[in-house]
Amino acid sequence: MDYFNDLKIIRSDLSKIHSGTITREPCNYYCLQYNHKGKINIKLDNSPSVTVDGPSLLITNPKMKFSFGTGNKNTWHHNYIAFTGDRVSSYIKSGFLPIKNPIHLIHDGPKFLNTLNEFQDKSTKGAIGKNRSIHLFESLLLQLHEQSQYKAKETPLINDIQILLGKIQKRPHQNWDFKMISEKLHVSYGHFRRIFTDLTKLAPQNYIIQSRLSKASELLLTKNMPIKEIAERVGIDDIHYFTKIFKRAYHLPPAKYRKEMRT
């Protein structure tokens, strides 16, 4: 089957913690540059520098000169996919790859990062895995368009929930009472849950779990603390349950994930 052969993934690198600044001259490929966490400065060609606080996506093209990073010892969580091929032209022509607007804020960082991790996992598994990885790559682009639908029809409730998502990502370990939150927002829990799920594509409790696992993956890569302590720090006291759901999400048990990703 050659259906996916018109898109070539040149290289990718996920779950890396960086400091300082990365600079790139014009090259022969496009790239999705995803910052999952941390504040970075982005400079495109001769345009003024822009400061963005993750989660955010930078889409670069072969003619673009760019630099991004903190410029100091502060860290940020960087992932990228470099790609080329005839299929990219159809992406651009249809608007599926929005290169005219290269900087995008990602409202559901854990979901975006989880798709990136699935992409990386599939891309290492031969021909069939490669096809699956391209399918997941297109899922990332689709997520951009799905979230843009809500920008066009923002309501106070959507704004409140987006603020709430940012708070959850910062403190996923906290006990979040969504029924109480919906009361404070003066809406029924059913309506709150429906809008929350529309925005994130996850039910509130599933979003909490995904956020906790995302934080755990970060701690596994940046800290040497025992896995049980990491599980407790993200709000999961049962180590066996933590190991089970982490493996389900990242396709590796925590200890092996730490070893392989660090390598």
What is the topological layout?
Layout: E1 8-19, E2 21-24, E3 30-37, E4 39-44, E5 50-53, E6 56-60, E7 66-69, E8 75-84, H1 86-94, E9 103-105, H2 109-123, H3 126-151, H4 156-170, H5 178-184, H6 189-200, H7 204-222, H8 227-233, H9 239-250, H10 254-262
Antiparallel strand pairs: 1-8, 2-7, 3-6, 3-8, 4-5, 4-7, 6-9
The string of secondary-structure elements, in order, is EEEEEEEEHEHHHHHHHHH
The stretches of 5 or more residues where confidence is low (pLDDT under 50) are none
The number of distinct β-strands equals 9
- Strand content bin: 15-25%
The rounded distance between the terminal residues' Cα atoms is: 33 Å
Written overview of the protein:
This protein is an alpha+beta fold. The chain has 2 domains: 102 residues, Jelly Rolls, CATH 2.60.120.810; 107 residues, Homeodomain-like (Arc Repressor Mutant, subunit A, Orthogonal Bundle), CATH 1.10.10. 50% of the residues lie in helices and 21% in strands. The chain is built from 10 helices and 9 strands. The strands form 2 sheets. Strands 1-8-3-6-9 form a 5-stranded antiparallel beta sheet. The protein has a 4-stranded antiparallel beta sheet with strand order 2-7-4-5, with no helix packed on it. A hairpin with a 5-residue loop joins strand 4 and strand 5. Helix 2 runs antiparallel to helix 3, helix 2 crosses helix 7 and helix 4 crosses helix 6. The longest helix has 26 residues.
